[in-house]
Amino acid sequence: MNTIQATDQYMMNAFGRIPLVEAAGHNCTCTDENGKTYIDFGSGIGCNVLGWCNDKWVDAVCAQVKSLQHACNYYYTQPQAQLAESLAKITGFSKMFFGNSGAEANECAIKVARKYSSDRYGKNRGTIVSLVNSFHGRTLATLAATGQDVFHQYFYPFPSGHVFAKANDLDDLKSKLDGTVCGIMLEVIQGEGGVCALDKEYVQAVKEICDNEDIILIIDEVQTGCGRTGTFLAQEQFGIRANVTTLAKAIGGGLPIGICLADEKTAGVITPGTHGSTFGGNPVVCAGANAVIEQITAEGFLDSVKEKAAYLRGELEKIPEITGLTGIGMMIGMTLKTKNAHDVMVAANDAGLLVLTAKEKLRLLPPLTITKEEMDAGLAILRKVLS
Ligand SMILES: Cc1ncc(COP(=O)(O)O)c(C=O)c1O
């Protein structure tokens, strides 16, 4: 069987896959098994933040895999320690927990909010409020925290203690605060929900409510974090710092990782035996993440992301079929005038450009290392597909 046949025969049919076998890649250009090349405006849904097979990332991962591939978390490893120290210094968060995915990071965040509350107020204060149209993952708890009805099917019973408030509607949020709420969870830009940024004033008001009511503010930066919007965390542009923040996708540079960061208030919540992971903080994955951080935080890198985003957005605005641009920085949603976003994605793939969709929008999450030449090549294809 060839790759597509074997996958379709033996893998559960969870993804509506496009018939393209990715075989190799460098920076923002990838090659399929037939040698056809593609410009990458999707970075594997925001994971290949340094592009395909970035040299320094590959060197770091290969060096680590040759010396120590796994250690049980009862022992210490240098790459894990280095990653934790770097992230604490960059973000100002006090402590963190390493898992393997965004959903796991969000599970940890929910546990931190609930245990913080349980330690102080006892039982019956475990409700998590999240926002309508949010997306927080595919585990049962993170599905329960996801504010879209389409995800609340089939898998009953879902964990209880999850309610939803309308995004950017402070009165609706306040109406959910019935004394049982321990955490409010949000994405400052709803990614899967259609690249919709929250209002800055709303986010700041939520932060104030959380501080006043001793509610844990969880910001899910699985998609927005690690430089995607032009700052290391997107919440920096909203002028706040959450109590708990989650990272995944980009921070691994293409290897699986999920991180739950806790502030001074929540840093001591997780104690031995209350949480854990076999592979979380794996030294190879952490070595790759350290290579990501080194490059993302290098002098001028985040400024270059802002410049690239301004250029890309300026060029996209000139395309008549695109009637609106959403998101911040290199997290771009596009409203189309007449065309169907999924059809455009398929047509773009055929023409040699990898793009994404989010709800009814076309979505771009280009690698942050993309060059002007690669942007121009991708834009030329997009113009043609949208004409
Ligand atoms: C905001 C957000 N949170 C959580 C997740 C889940 O991450 P993972 O698929 O790594 O579990 C995603 C994935 O798209 C996401 O966009």
Fold and architecture overview:
The chain is α/β, with parallel strands linked by helices and 387 residues long. It folds into two domains: 3-56 and 299-386, Alpha-Beta Complex (Aspartate Aminotransferase, domain 1); 68-296, 3-Layer(aba) Sandwich (Aspartate Aminotransferase, domain 2). The chain has twelve helices and 17 strands. Helix 4 runs parallel beside helix 9 and helix 11 (341-351) crosses helix 12. The longest helix has 20 residues, at 102-121. It is globular. The model has no long low-confidence stretch (mean pLDDT 98). The structure holds pyridoxal-5'-phosphate.
Any key phrases for this structure?
12 helices; globular; 2 domains; binds pyridoxal-5'-phosphate; seven-stranded mixed sheet; alpha/beta; Aspartate Aminotransferase, domain 1; 37% helix; Aspartate Aminotransferase, domain 2; 387 residues
Instruction: Return the CATH class of the largest domain.
Output: Alpha Beta
The CATH topology of the largest domain is given as Aspartate Aminotransferase, domain 2
| Name of the CATH superfamily of the largest domain | Type I PLP-dependent aspartate aminotransferase-like (Major domain)
- Order of strands across the widest beta sheet? 4-12-11-10-7-5-6
Ligands = pyridoxal-5'-phosphate
What is the ordering of alpha helices and beta strands? HEEEHHHEHEHEHEEEHEEEHHEEHEEEH
- Distance, first to last CA: 38 Å
Number of domains: 2
